Amino acid sequence: MRKSEYIGWKEVFRFTLEQGMKGKAYKGFLIAGCLILLLAKPVVSLFNNMDSEEEAYHCEVTEFTVYDEVGLPIDYTQSLADEGFKDVKINLAPTMSFDDHVKALEEKSKDKEGEKSKEVIVHMTYEEAGYFNLTFVKASNADLKNDDAQKLADTFKNYFDEERINAIQVSQEQLDFLNRPVDTKLEFVTEAGDTVPEEDEAQAINEDEYNVMYILQMVVFMIVNLCGSSIATSIITEKSTKVVEYLMINVRPMALLTGKILANLVMVIIQAVAMVACFVASGFINKAMFGETEKVAASAGTGMEVSVMDSSDMLELLSGVNVGEALIALVAVICGMLFFCMLAGLCGATASKLEEMAESIKLYTMLLLVGFFLSFGVVMMMYSGAGNPTFTNICCLVPISSPFILPACLLLGKVPLGISIIGLLILVVFVWALFTLAAMVYESLIFYNGKVMSFKDILQIAKNRRQVERKGEKSHE
Amino acid sequence: MSLEVKNLTKTYGSKTVVDNLSFELKEPGVYALLGTNGAGKTTSIRMILGMLAKDSGEVLWNGKPIDPMNMNVGYLAEERGLYPKYTLMDQLLYFAKLKGVDKATAKQRIKYWAERLEVEEYLYPPKKVKGKKPEKPKTAEQLSKGNQQKIQLMAALLSEPELLILDEPLSGLDPVNTDLFKGIIREEISKGKYLIMSSHQMFTIEEFCKDITILNRGKAVLQGDLNEIKKGYGRVNLMVKCDESFADLIEKHALPVVNDTPDGTQLKVTGEEQANAFLADLLKENKKVVRFELREPSLHEIFVEKAGAANEEE
Questions:
Q1: Is B84–A241 a contact, with Cβ atoms under 8 angstroms apart?
Q2: pLDDT, tens digit (0-9, with 9 covering 90-100), for A11-52
Q3: CA B120, CA B79: separation in Å to the nearest integer?
Q4: B220 & B291 share domain
Q5: How far is the alpha carbon of B83 from chain A, nearest alpha carbon, in Å?
Q6: Which of A351, A424, A457, B277 is a Cys-bridge partner for A453, taking CB atoms 3.0 to 4.6 Å apart?
Q7: For the segment B55-72, what is each residue's pLDDT rounded down to a tens digit?
Q8: Is there a single domain that holds both residue B178 and residue B271?
Q9: Nearest to A255 by CA among A3, A8, A1, A2
Q10: Are residues A246 and B83, on separate chains, in Cβ contact within 8 Å?
Q11: How many A-B residue pairs are in contact by the CB < 8 A criterion?
Q12: Is the pTM of this model over 0.80?
């Protein structure tokens, strides 16, 4: 790659950036995205506040009879303590059996003329199969909405769940401790009697780590995809409108490609930074408007909770990242963008008309999707507790998946630093190789008119070009 | 200044599209590259401009290998192209910037050429009129083909190039705009510029060009000074028109008829002697001669003959 091949890239960069940012699509997407993110938190909080300000929930059930055959020492008079159930009369000493009560409700429902029931009964049993059974019954023509009965049932069940633990005098901490997963490890004993642990230990991530990895992957994928398709479109447009004929006397093909890639990268980075800034600003606006209440907002009276996304936990996860790791992650993302953008540019140049775009960028689309799904697979496996370190490391080394998975894994300490550095070096080598290939074939591709070329054809052009160069070198000698 | 093209060759796979092309432009003026469709004119131009890598040969400007990146070259491509969605002013400023022309100078030159080429209304929309929405600057897709061609010519001339390459500059233009373009080409010649022009319009080439190369399937089949080439053919085209029929005399002199139209009968003669003998006979037979013109072959005839002969040989 000679320096002269890149003369003029600055002018191409400036023009592409200016025109791209002037474009209605770019401005529209940027403004809409920023507005949505800026308003996201305050709007969600506003709706939650409106819900809480709405008239308090009032349950229409007038009588609730409990048939307890479980026999745990639980005070069911407190089971419907929420404000919404204050008018519900709880009957813990029924005068008839559960079956008779059900029959009485059936009879009542047959009487179309009589007063409609507002009663719910519950039959609590412990089944031999080893579970508690709570059967809630109301008359079929009861003057109650299903929602009322359901809310009552949910609230009663939550109370029962909490109190049955209290009844056996086990604290929540003890229960959590007992419920912790059991890890199994396989070790091999050698002839010398040493124990050798099995190399691969299942990787697992919690929900916050999953969120961080998922968001990082999605952001990189979106940036790469937007950038790549924009470059391919721009190259095919210049080819199909023949502008490239004029440009080629002033700039070399590689300068044209470089200017375009960098301009598109800057455009997408501006978009991403603006959107992240809006998201952060949204948090501040929300805090100023609604205080600290956004994390959990309770719906009045029902005992149900609505959680609102909070980025602070996710940012906390990244707080332990050192500068070196952050730098490697950033370079990996940039190299990934360059790799896919260059690929998109090369693929785009194989078409002559805009209609051929989808066909021409097939290879780019396929590699992009395979790379993304590989890395997404790694995250999903880890989230389900079945992450395989070997597979994760391989994905961090393969240049089509490493731009998506390597930064996330490195920042969360899910991949060794050594593997990250090797992965980054492989990516750099591939970017360089792709640049070299582009330098050899881009000129021929840019003037090519005809059916869409395959990657095999591109390699053939590179081979021919190399032969011609060798001939030239020999004749100079 | 001089431009030398030496043994330029380009192959695609097994197909040689330009084969050992050589020519020279020693003094200002227009050099014509002629050829049938697919003869290799545009590929040759692209190689001269360094857009396309040559397999062998060299192009020298003032005795040194040409470097279009670092010299002032203007180019009007055969396949016209402008960005359809961008404003014309933005595009022209960009093209000027690529040529190293600063913004202020570029704006001055754009103004001059917009007036000269009568495209001001597209580049400078009228300012806001009270009660009316201001007009937006025009984009290329809003222009007719001819006007797009004018903008392209402006782009080629903005840097005031020392070497101007025009690939089919007049194709698709109406007679009024053809004259406008011809006027500009004449002006550039008078400024002492070096021009290479490719065209299928032979009359235009005859009007401007001193030296020519006729390409056929990548090979130069005829090259040199156009007047000398014509002289070499001699005055062998005889156009005769009489009030009466003179078919008997044509038969008597065994002259091949090239064309027979109401405007006259075109005959092929071996030279002035045969023509004079034919005229003497016409007068002897008391034919009323309305037209008797002995001339060199036109470039069109030479082109058809050369291209046709080359094809027959192959």
A1: yes
A2: 999 999 999 999 888 899 999 999 998 988 888 888 877 766
A3: 24
A4: no
A5: 7
A6: A457
A7: 899 999 988 998 887 888
A8: no
A9: A8
A10: no
A11: 74
A12: no
